[in-house]
Amino acid sequence: xxxxVDLAFxxxxxxxxxxxxxxxxxxxxxxxxxxxxxxxxxNVMMITVDSIGRVFYNIEGQETRRGLLTALGKKYNVPFTxxxxxxxxxxxxxxxxxxxxxxxxxxxxxxRKEMNKLTKGIPIDSLNNQLADWIAFGRxxxxxxxxxxxxxxxxxxxxxxxxxxxxxxxxKRVVEIFQERKINRFNLITNLEANPNPGPSG
Length: 202
Description:
Layout: H1 2-18, E1 33-34, E2 44-49, E3 55-59, H2 62-76, H3 82-90, H4 101-106, H5 109-118, E4 124-125, E5 128-129, H6 130-148, E6 157-162, H7 168-180, E7 187-189, E8 191-192
Parallel strand pairs: 1-8, 2-6, 6-7
Antiparallel strand pairs: 2-3, 4-5
Helix pairs in contact: 2-3, 2-6
């Protein structure tokens, strides 16, 4: 029994030290349902549209996110510190104009939650299409990260996660921005519902 107890505590300690908690999502999305069982692949750039039409962005990989932030900073003339880059790399979904990012990264957790409530999302209109830059720079940063790690097969995938109450116009605009950036293949994320035509039970 003693070796078994030791092993159990060893496993518990291992999982406690290696577990990574996901950051809180700034937006809650009630996705429409479908019967598709296709699993979302890894290494995804995710565009989220909430029920009031705000657009949020997420991409996997800390190094990729750092590269994205550096490129956005250069384009919009916003200098980010190393500490701010580190915070950005650890966050999840972001839905702010680039000029508000510095204030967001310098805020504490409570301040960021308040900014998430008040934000209008990433601009997508034709006069201020910042989402196009997020997509382009994120794609470049992901390719550079994969090249450094020699993971050429780990290709970046693209996905849109829309709330069931989101307007068609906003989703259509996001699709247009993808196509403007020569991205014509992407996943639409839904909740899995029961198959309406189940096969005979065993």
